[in-house]
Each structure stands twice: as structure tokens, then as C-alpha cells.
Inverse folding.
């Protein structure tokens, strides 16, 4: 057995701080994280744990930093790297003007491979260790992505877009080909090492009912795969869904009627939901991805976290690159805080940390393997840098307690605040 | 005469792009900026201008970057550096819990001097070359600030806070002392070198009518000084002003009845304004500072730039540190864009550049000396770096034209995007 240890300030969540207060997290000012064969061996006070280590154990010192579980991004599009920060449109126009042309390039496996490499390196640079990722309609986009993830030994979930209408012809599949291609990808990649597959109908407007039925059939045949789609992002979109699916009660009901809700289903956005939809999300144990930078950048609206909490709907954070304009979960937390401030709802720093780690893991139904430092979990973790910038350095010295420091790192931090990213106990990024 | 030149991509505004379209800006792909004794000697195509230079002229090459006029921050509090990113409150509570305790430390001239140094270095690091700055109630806070600005040869405007009620006693002056102290500071600093003074009543709720009358009297006696205050930031604040000044028509009318409107008056925020107030702002040629990061961070609301444009009210951008959470005008533009997106109003990249440069200069009534590269103006400029981060570098290569590049720098840029900051032709910051 290979054993190593990491000594420094350590913070992680055990549960949702909304419900469990100070019981929901652990902090060790002089902590030790012991890694055994890529998994967490133990996490606790250094003084208590050091004595149990063999003298030969390598101990990594992480001074002036904070060791956290790796960040989890519950909604992102890897083929949209090149259209981050595309000007001047809201959702439907944005898709047609920017997203579809960009995605059409992923027919080429070389484009897909090069972009997947850039994308995953950006994730590591930003401290993101797991993500739920859109590919394009092309199966080769998913092959390229999973190959790049395998090379880095990352826990990643991805899927081929299913889309058979209201999109350029070159980006459309059919109910039959989308079923067959997705099924082949599931067989090729799902649960291979750390990888997982997500059935990925883009969103209700670009799938026929026949295609959504095939998606539901896939889920029945492969109950351990994920479902990844969009829900109620933009008002015009919602109206359009009403016109396209007059037989459905509302937007969520489109997915429900096709058998796509459940504890492994993640719907991005969920901004304009009815109380019925909130209730059905909760009852079906479905999850939402809150993507504040995207919701602001393309002007979609303000996600109501208070309501999600009232209905006990599970929520993760998503950067939604390329609708979102940052790969950083810290920047995402910054804007999540602001979106909630506009609605007079306080998003506490420990809650944000939960959403970006264990909460995200739970939204992906991966809380058994990642999200915190419980013994046996996979050792994906990051080290934040209290000296990341002159301003952070100046500001941190004025903080009176841990929560102030955490909040400062969340509000003022960006990719620079990630000093190191470790995957299964191996250092994969260092500034 | 000392002559030097800067060669590279150059962009600057001549007017407001909203009204003048492509006539409002100049771009030179291979441009030359000639600096003569700290002022702009000429700006144009390198090929045209190079031949007129003496052989001995030093020419600075700025490859893979963009030369812009220095950024102008029309609202910021230097004593609030240490409370950037303070958690969990909206305006009134934020003032009491964070701002007032921080400001009380500025009775100590050493604190003031050290903070002024840190603050001005941060501005330079972020490409901000001129700012309209709040001090504290203590005259020594303004002395320390102007001394630090003088050492860096910066064009800065600052003023001592006037505040005689609804604040901790140690932070209160009186109508008489605020008048006398402000007058002494005006005599000591106003128009000394590049410095300007701003009469600075914090905001209506913390000044008695007697104090605001003294402020108005100061302005009459010193018509070239500025006025700097807050206006209509937060709904509770607006309601409070109504209770405190029942004799006034609305919030703006409080300032108007005390003689404080005019072309050198800058009011931060202006989020919850009536049509009457918009009209009176325009008729009085008063200016607003749009502070998106602050308005989001403390949950104040969404500034309506569309309405400001309809009423032809002059607007500058403000970071509003410490209510705002970034010193960067690029980050401020990012969030300004998002605030307008939420209101379905497109903030074009060239318009944002205008707001951050010539528009800001105009809001400070300094368009005669700074804001663009017209011959004779002071040579304060910055160089943006197209290689600032891996993501910017990746994204810039996909841009098809100047406006896309500018928008990418605005959306993805931060302090790292500022490669150099030059003040009166002297390099004062380089990464």
C-alpha cells in the first residue's frame, strides 16, 4: 500500500450546513490528510494522526493555505470553450449565433481531442476535479473527452447531445441514431474506471417526443447512468416549450412524461419554475445546477435558492461554460452570493463550500465516492493559497475567524487561488 | 522637451459611441502614441508618425497588447480596503457593522498613510489612473491620501466625509467643523498639481440639513471643486431619506435644496430614481456613478443604464470598494454588462470602454485633460495583455475583429490583464 500525508489547514463538509449547522463541517487548523492508494485513509488533527504513520511516510506541508475537497462542476459544455464571452445575446439567439456553429466543429476528432485537453487542464487549474459535461451531437466528441479524462485519471461524466429538431441539420441526429450512439457510448465508457455516462438531450425544444422517449428507454435499460439537460432557463424558452409540448403540464413535465426524472438527473438552471415543478423535482429526487455566471451573462434571471431550500431540492453549482464566463467555482460562488443578495437571501460561505463540494457530489449521486474527506473516498483535493494576490493577502490578514477567511477566498479568489490540485492522491496541477 | 513614443495597437474614444457610432472612436492596428513632456504629442498610424520623430527618440514596443487610456473610477472609498468582501448584509447594516468601525481607524495618520499607499498601488495594478475617492471624516485621512497621490503624480480627487448624525459619535463632525475642515483642505490641496477636492457629505441620512447647507455654501465659495455623495442605492435607505427630509420632494431634491447639484457633482448608484429625479439630474448636468459589483454584492439592485441614456444623464463607472469587491474596472465592466443583460439592454464593448475612460472623465468634468489620446492631454495610459491568462490567450485567437477582442478582455480580464500602467508618460506599474 502506498501511503502519503498532507499537513495544513483542512476544511470539509460532512452534510448540508443549512440543516446541520456546525455539525455539518470539520476544520483542523493543523490537520493531516492521509492518502492510501489514492483514497482517503484518515483526516484529522495532525498531532493525533502523525504518531500512527510509518517514519518513511512522505508528508507534504501546505503552509498558508487551505486544503479542501476538489470542486465539482455540475453543468458545463466542453465544446463551448471558444465561445466564452460571446457578445450581446440571450439564450435562443446565443445558441444559434454562437453555440451551434462552435459545436459543429466537433465532427472533427482532432478538434475534439485538442479542446478536451485544453478544457480539462483549465478545470485542474481552477481546482475542479469532477464535472458533468455536455459533449456535442457527435459520438466522437464524447470519445475524445473520455480519452482525455482517462489520461488524467479524472472522475468525469459526459454524454453525447441528443438533438433532432430546431437546430442546424449538421447538428441533428434522429431518435434511432441518438439511441444507438448513446447506447454504444454507454457500453464503451460508463463505469469504465472513474467515468460515467449521462444521457444528454440538449433541452426540450431541440428534441422530438420520439427522441425523448428513446432517452427514457435508455435510462430504463441503464439505470446507473445520469441524465443531463436544461430546464427553465429563459422566459422565451419556457413559452416555446409550452407551444411545442401542449400535452405537458409544464416544462418539467416534458421530461417527466418521458421518464427522465430521478436521483441521477441534473437539470441546469431552473429559474422560472412553478410550485408544481419545484414539488415534482423534490418528489422525484431530481437535481438542479445553479449557474449564476451564465444566468447573469446571458441575462436569464435569478435562481431562487431560497425556494430550492424550501422544497428541499438538491442543488449543485455549475459554471455553464460557455454561457458562463468563468471556469472558476470560486468566481461562481462569488456570483451565486450576489444573485442571492439581490433576493435578500444570505448564502453563507460554508454553504457555498458545501454546494461546490459535497452538495455537488450529492447532486451527481456520487456522495459515496467524492465530495469530502471521509475515509475510503477518492483523494481528489485542492490547496487554496492565502497569498494568491496582493489584495487577498492584505485582506486575509484582517480576518478574525475561519468563516471570514473562507468568504474572502470565495469572493476575491479565482484560478490564482488554486495553488495545487491533487487527483487520487497525485499532484496534477501546481501554480 | 522630452519626447518618447509607444508603438502597438491603440484604441481610444473621441465621444460617446451611443450617439456617434463609429465616429466615436479611433483604432490604429499599428499605432504610435507620442508623449511630449508627459502629455500626448500625437496619436495615429505608426507609419505616418514615425518619420516625424527625431532618430534619438525612445520607442517602446507593445506587442500582443492593446494601448488604452487609463481607467477612471468615479466612486471608491480608500478607507474601506480592509472590509472588501465582508459577509452578509445590505447597505445600512453593512455601514454599521463594517464600514464605520473600519473608518474609525483613520484618526491615526499612520493607518491612513499605509492604507493610501496600498490603495494607490492597487489602482495602478488594475490600470486605474484617476479616481474620485472618499476619505473618512478625519481631515488627516485626506492629507495622507493626497500625499500618497502626489508621490505617484496621480490625478486624484478626494474629500473628507461630512457626517453629523446617525453614525458613531467618534465619526461625527458638526456643520461648523465640517465646513472649516473641508475649507482648509480645499485651500491646502485643491488644484495643487494634479489633485482636486470633492465636498463629500456621505449621504443624506448622515447629514443634518444644517450640514448640507454648509456643504452648499462651500461649493458656492469654491465653484471648481467637486461634490461626491451617494444617492438612492437601497430601498430602505430611500424610505429613510423620505422620513428624515419630509420637506423634500425626493432623495435628489435633498441635495438640490442644499445647492449640491451641478456638472461637477457625482452621485453614486442612483438605482431607485423617479422620473422627476432623472430629469433633474439631466437638467442640472449632474453625474451618476454606476457601481455594478457593489450593487450586486450588497444586493442594492440593478442600475438602469437604458433610462440614464434616455434622459441623457452622464454616467461613469465606479468600483465602490469596499461595497464593491474588485478594484478592477475590467471586472466592473463584466458585471455592468451582466446587470444590463438582466434588463435586456446591450452594453456594447466600445460603450463600456467609453464609460471606463472618456465617459468617466466627463462625469468628473475632466474631459479637457484626461480620458483619451487627444493632443495636449495628460499621458495616462495602460497596456492590456492578450496573453494575460491561458483562457484569454486561447479565446483571443478565436476572435474575428477588434470588438470581439475588446469584449473578451473586458469579460475575462482582471488585474492580470494590465501589463503596464503609465502616468504622465512614466511607467509606474509593470507586471
Amino acid at each position: 500500500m502506498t501511503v502519503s500525508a498532507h499537513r495544513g489547514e483542512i476544511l470539509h463538509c460532512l452534510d448540508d450546513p443549512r440543516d446541520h449547522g456546525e455539525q455539518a463541517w470539520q476544520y483542523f487548523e493543523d490537520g493531516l490528510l492521509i492518502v492510501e492508494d489514492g483514497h482517503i485513509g484518515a483526516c484529522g488533527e495532525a498531532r493525533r494522526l502523525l504518531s500512527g504513520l510509518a517514519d518513511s511516510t512522505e508528508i507534504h506541508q501546505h503552509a498558508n493555505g487551505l486544503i479542501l475537497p476538489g470542486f465539482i462542476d455540475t453543468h458545463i459544455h466542453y465544446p463551448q470553450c471558444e465561445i466564452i464571452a460571446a457578445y450581446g445575446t440571450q439564450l435562443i439567439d446565443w445558441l444559434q449565433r454562437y453555440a451551434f456553429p462552435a459545436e459543429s466543429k466537433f465532427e472533427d476528432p482532432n478538434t475534439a481531442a485538442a479542446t478536451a485537453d485544453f478544457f480539462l487542464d483549465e478545470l485542474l487549474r481552477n481546482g475542479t476535479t469532477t464535472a458533468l459535461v455536455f459533449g456535442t451531437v457527435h459520438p466522437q466528441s464524447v470519445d475524445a473527452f473520455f480519452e482525455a479524462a482517462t489520461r488524467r485519471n479524472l472522475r468525469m461524466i459526459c454524454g453525447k447531445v441528443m438533438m433532432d429538431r430546431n437546430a442546424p441539420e449538421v447538428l441533428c441526429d434522429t431518435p434511432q441514431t441518438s439511441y444507438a450512439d448513446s447506447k454504444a457510448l454507454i457500453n464503451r465508457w460508463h463505469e469504465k474506471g472513474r467515468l460515467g455516462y449521462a444521457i444528454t438531450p440538449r433541452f426540450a425544444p431541440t428534441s422530438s417526443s420520439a427522441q425523448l422517449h428513446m432517452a427514457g428507454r435508455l435510462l430504463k435499460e441503464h439505470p446507473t447512468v445520469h441524465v443531463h439537460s436544461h430546464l427553465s432557463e429563459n422566459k422565451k424558452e419556457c413559452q416555446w416549450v409550452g407551444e411545442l409540448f401542449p400535452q405537458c403540464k409544464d416544462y418539467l413535465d416534458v421530461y417527466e412524461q418521458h421518464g427522465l426524472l430521478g436521483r441521477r438527473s441534473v437539470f441546469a438552471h431552473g429559474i422560472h419554475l412553478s410550485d408544481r415543478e419545484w414539488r415534482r423535482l423534490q418528489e422525484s429526487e431530481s437535481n438542479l445546477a445553479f449557474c449564476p455566471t451564465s444566468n447573469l451573462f446571458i441575462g436569464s434571471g435569478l435562481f431562487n435558492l431560497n425556494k430550492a431550500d424550501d422544497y428541499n431540492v438538491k442543488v449543485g453549482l455549475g459554471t455553464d461554460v460557455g454561457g458562463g464566463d468563468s471556469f472558476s467555482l470560486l468566481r461562481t460562488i462569488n456570483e451565486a452570493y450576489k444573485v442571492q443578495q439581490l433576493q435578500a437571501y444570505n448564502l453563507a460561505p460554508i454553504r457555498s463550500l458545501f454546494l461546490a463540494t459535497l452538495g455537488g457530489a450529492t447532486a451527481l449521486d456520487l456522495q459515496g465516492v467524492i465530495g469530502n474527506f471521509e475515509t475510503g473516498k477518492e483523494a481528489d483535493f485542492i490547496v487554496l493559497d492565502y497569498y494568491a494576490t496582493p489584495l487577498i493577502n492584505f485582506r486575509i490578514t484582517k480576518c478574525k475567524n475561519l468563516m471570514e477567511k473562507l468568504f474572502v477566498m470565495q469572493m476575491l479568489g479565482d484560478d490564482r487561488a488554486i495553488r495545487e490540485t491533487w487527483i487520487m492522491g497525485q499532484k496534477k496541477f501546481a501554480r
